């Protein structure tokens, strides 16, 4: 019988919290995304998996460090790719934090709210936000990026084949010095593959503005 990974078995313990430097209209836009979901949401930067949310739901303090780490990581980037959009909470954080950012996102759209949330961000951010429906392998396989991504956020399919593909594609398409942020970076197979890439001197882990990882997401830089 197949077994399923229980992510909470590996979730970091004693995660720190912090004060947050919200971007312009960030909390307003997150509230609007919450209103679109208006029900259970897949786990993200603001809420635990299957939390029932609405327009009055407030991002949980327990993930404040994770959100601030993302803000510091994205601050100076120009063109970013996000693999795994979900309800758009991390996209909203990145776009609100960095007014010079253009963001391309991909999602397989298994949740009913995904496309509505993506359309909402498109209405707000216009030509700073682009959304594509499909898996990363469907959209990116055998394709070389036509733009120079300096930031990629991997938060897509949790299967190991999906993860390997996303990391390998990022390796080929990030420019030197570009940043790769991996969500759910505490999973053992993820950590092993990242360690391998570091041993091969492809990536090195960095702390954005000196902020260490809580273990929830990890930032690396292409060498």
Describe the structure.
This protein has helices at 26-37, 64-74, 89-97, 114-125, 136-140, 160-173, 188-199, and strands at 39-41, 51-53, 79-83, 102-107, 129-133, 149-154, 174-183, 203-205, 217-222. α1 packs antiparallel against α4. The protein has a single domain, classed as Rossmann fold, CATH 3.40.50.150. The chain is globular and about 45 Å long. The chain contains 7 helices and 9 strands. With 223 residues, the protein is α/β, with parallel strands linked by helices. It has a 7-stranded mixed sheet, sandwiched between helices. The mean pLDDT is 94. Helices cover 34% and strands 21% of the residues. β3 (79-83), α3 and β4 (102-107) form a beta-alpha-beta unit.
- Total strands: the figure is 9
Largest sheet: 7 strands, mixed
Helix content: 25-40%
Distance between the termini: 42 Å
Amount of beta strand? 15-25%
What's the arrangement of secondary structure elements?
Blueprint: H1 26-37, E1 39-41, E2 51-53, H2 64-74, E3 79-83, H3 89-97, E4 102-107, H4 114-125, E5 129-133, H5 136-140, E6 149-154, H6 160-173, E7 174-183, H7 188-199, E8 203-205, E9 217-222
Parallel strand pairs: 3-4, 3-6, 4-5, 6-7
Antiparallel strand pairs: 1-2, 7-9, 8-9
